[in-house]
Specification:
The protein has one domain: Alpha-Beta Plaits. It has 64 residues and is an alpha+beta fold. Helices cover 23% and strands 22% of the residues. It contains 2 helices and 4 strands.
Length: 64
């Protein structure tokens, strides 16, 4: 699975970073950065939760 971030929707609240810090980071300017686009099988549940919890619906998972 691959993480897709729609920056135009992102509100930079940081829920994704708090749930999956190895995949998401809020930088010093307040923008969300996807640190790793490809999700490891062992982390899929955590990343799915981060995507589902995004209040702006700015994140998605797509199959490779």
């Amino acid at each position: 699975m691959r993480i897709v971030l729609d920056k135009s929707k992102c509100s930079s609240i940081g829920i994704c970073e708090s749930l999956a810090p190895e995949y998401f980071e809020v930088d010093d300017d307040g923008a969300v950065i996807v640190k790793r686009e490809i999700v490891d099988d062992g982390a899929l549940g955590v990343v799915e939760k981060a995507v589902a919890e995004c209040p702006a619906a700015a994140l998605a998972l797509v199959k490779e």
